[in-house]
What we know:
The protein is α/β, with parallel strands linked by helices. The chain folds into 2 domains: about 5-150, 3-Layer(aba) Sandwich (Rossmann fold), CATH 3.40.50.720; about 150-305, Alpha-Beta Complex (L-2-Hydroxyisocaproate Dehydrogenase, Chain A, domain 2). It is built from 8 helices and 14 strands. The strands form 4 sheets. It has a 6-stranded parallel sheet, with helices on both faces. A 3-stranded antiparallel sheet has the order 7-10-11, covered by helices on one side. Helix 1 (about 15-25) packs parallel to helix 2 (about 40-55) and helix 1 (about 15-25) crosses helix 7 (about 230-245). It is globular. Adenosine-5-diphosphoribose binds near residues 15 and 39. The site of adenosine-5-diphosphoribose has 28 residues, from helix 1 and helix 3.
Amino acid sequence: xxxxxxxxxxxxxxxxxxxxxxxxxxxxxxxxxxxxxxxxxxxxxxxxxxxxxxxxxxxxxxxxxxxxxxxxxxxxxxxxxxxxxxxxxxxxxxxxxxxxxxxxxxxxxxxxxxxxxxxxxxxxxxxxxxxxxxxxxxxxxxxxxxxxxxxxxxxxxxxxxxxxxxxxxxxxxxxxxxxxxxxxxxxxxxxxxxxxxxxxxxxxxxxxxxxxxxxxxxxxxxxxxxxxxxxxxxxxxxxxxxxxxxxxxxxxxxxxxxxxxxxxxxxxxxxxxxxxxxxxxxxxxxxxxxxxxxxxxxxxxxxxxxxxxxxx
Length: 312
Ligand code: APR
């Protein structure tokens, strides 16, 4: 027994493997990587490999691989990447039916073995999968979040840094809405070291940043040929995970259950959230322009349509 946090990773593929690596390097807790029985050897192998990495950085954490849900008992944090990633030509929505079945299975098991954990999902189509997990598991809304806004905002900030030639450290910006082509990068409030983006880039350049942000995931899928992004998704999940474990109260755009916020009711959508030991502690609201509000509702409609298709 240790007093360290226990972190359960459900799905030990590309993103799951990176999550284990980052969690170990940051010494955030002991890590259990769970996958389906057919992939148990793979996650056991990753765990052995990661254990041998510890002396190089002095990381005192335990990492194990399993396919037995009893091993996640006591986890305060569950990170779900279980599912199938996109192939070239597929949209995130094409994954709906396949990943929905997986979500049903995973939700029941997480509820049974780690009912008090904060759960962050990455499986696509993200907003619908988080909704499905929430419904199937019956966990309280504060305990369930989707990683998307964190990734999309990271991409947005990275592309702003590239266009302006300034450090990523000083770029601030938020992407709201669903994790798909209708996501809403809020250019009006984006800034570089406190200087509004509009003072640094012309309209056309800002438009290019927005389009690049929206298409970044697909660009990677097309180039990779057999999977989707994993470095930045894993880092984005770990930002949320760390905010929870260290009770940081960080403001990270996440897919959270909206109940009236931004005029959205009953759906998970990317909105700025305060994340601390209470999970999704608060959704921060601010006044949108008519155009932004219209775009946000368009993306909310796209999420609603998907959720209606899954009929839970
Ligand atoms: N329970 C546990 N693990 C599962 C289950 C299940 N029911 N079904 C599938 N898995 C595992 C797979 O065996 C695989 O190891 O989930 C893992 C997924 O890993 P990858 O195929 O490498 O996919 P990855 O790139 O990690 O993406 C995972 O996140 O960004 C999204 O679209 C992406 O939905 C995809 C998910």
